[in-house]
């Protein structure tokens, strides 16, 4: 309880300090927000979004989850994305991973952690798809670091495939997508991919994110340029995609 009280006490001190510096500090921000950035990062307590990016309240729209995963089936991240892009009109979407990420480490091992295993499945896939490259890296830490980077590329690509981003790009060159990795030893953000602003740039990203697997057909969810399918038509389309994929990978469904 004592530690919890400290949080309230620090809040009081912080609010008083901000007001002392600028009496209108909170009033200026109370009526609306106009952030230029959507930040998607890991829930890890060592990577506080505003602190490491040097941003003030009102500058960063934030979504965090274990290991900064971006999945089209996750209503939470998709809602945040839609609101940020279509309502707040953010100029940049940043996926930020971090070295020594516990979620990524769990996905690299065989131990079961219960429900979170389901969440980490996309990262297990990243490990599987990049096995040829990862097996070349002898140093365990270096291999771990590489999976963190590949995971950021993978999630960035997922982002580029969402209807929200596809739709925004149809209308113009925004938002720009960026992939960063935070080095918790140095406190520095490393740029893994920057300025992804088109399907061509996203496709180039796709080449980098899966070093061991040839580029296959796009993911099942499809793109906005194609008609939206439902019911039997959707089932048929998915079945067709699966068949296409089996053919492309020479009989073994790697993805
Ligand atoms: Zn993490």
What does this molecule look like?
The chain is an alpha/beta fold and 255 residues long. The protein folds into 3 domains: 1-31, no CATH class; 34-215, 3-Layer(aba) Sandwich (Beta-carbonic Anhydrase, Chain A); 217-255. The chain contains 11 helices and 5 strands, in the order H-H-E-H-E-H-E-H-H-H-H-H-E-E-H-H. The chain has helices spanning 2-21, 25-30, 49-53, 75-87, 102-108, 116-129, 131-136, 140-161, 163-171, 199-209, 231-248, and strands at residues 37-42, 60-65, 92-98, 176-183, 188-196. Strands 2-1-3-4-5 form a 5-stranded mixed beta sheet. Strand 1 (37-42), helix 3 and strand 2 form a beta-alpha-beta unit. Helix 5 (102-108) packs across helix 6 and helix 8 packs antiparallel against helix 10. The longest helix has 22 residues, at 140-161. The termini are far apart. The protein binds zinc ion. Residues 42, 44, 67, 98, 101-103 line the site of zinc ion (ZN).
In short:
The protein starts with a helix and ends in a 7-residue tail after the last helix. A five-stranded mixed beta sheet has the order 2-1-3-4-5. It has helices at 2-21, 25-30, 49-53, 75-87, 102-108, 116-129, 131-136, 140-161, 163-171, 199-209, 231-248; strands at 37-42, 60-65, 92-98, 176-183, 188-196.
Shape: globular
Q: Output the structural class.
A: alpha/beta
Biggest sheet layout: 5 strands, mixed
N-end to C-end Cα span: 49 Å
How confident overall, as mean pLDDT? Answer: 86
Flag low-confidence runs: 212-229, 249-255
β-strand amount: 5-15%
- SSE order: HHEHEHEHHHHHEEHH
CATH fold-level assignment of the largest domain: Beta-carbonic Anhydrase, Chain A
User: How do the strands line up in the largest sheet?
Assistant: 2-1-3-4-5
Q: State the CATH architecture of the largest domain.
A: 3-Layer(aba) Sandwich
The number of distinct structural domains comes to 3
Ligand inventory? zinc ion
* Overall number of strands: 5
CATH top level of the largest domain is: Alpha Beta
How large is the count of helical segments?
Answer: 11
């Amino acid at each position: 309880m004592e530690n919890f009280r400290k949080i309230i006490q620090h809040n009081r001190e912080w609010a008083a300090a901000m007001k002392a510096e600028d009496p209108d500090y909170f009033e200026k921000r109370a009526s609306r927000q106009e952030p230029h950035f959507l930040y998607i990062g890991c829930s890890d307590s060592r990577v506080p979004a505003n602190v490491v990016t040097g941003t003030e309240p009102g500058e960063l729209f934030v979504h965090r989850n274990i290991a900064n995963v971006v999945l089209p089936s996750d209503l939470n991240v998709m809602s945040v994305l839609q609101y940020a892009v279509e309502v707040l009109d953010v100029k940049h979407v940043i996926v930020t991973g971090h070295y020594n990420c516990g979620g990524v480490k769990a996905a690299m091992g065989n131990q079961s952690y219960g429900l979170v295993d389901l969440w980490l499945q996309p990262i297990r896939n990243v490990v599987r798809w990049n096995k040829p490259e990862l097996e070349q890296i002898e140093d365990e830490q270096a291999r771990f670091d590489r999976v963190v980077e590949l995971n950021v590329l993978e999630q960035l690509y997922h982002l580029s495939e969402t209807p929200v981003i596809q739709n925004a790009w149809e209308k113009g060159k925004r938002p720009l997508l960026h992939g960063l990795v935070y080095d918790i030893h140095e406190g520095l953000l490393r740029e893994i991919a920057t300025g992804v602003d088109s399907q061509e740039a996203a496709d180039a990203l796709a080449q980098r994110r899966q070093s061991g697997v040839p580029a296959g057909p796009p993911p099942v969810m499809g793109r906005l340029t194609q008609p939206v399918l439902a019911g039997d038509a959707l089932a048929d389309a998915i079945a067709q995609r699966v068949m296409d994929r089996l053919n492309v990978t020479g009989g073994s469904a790697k993805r």
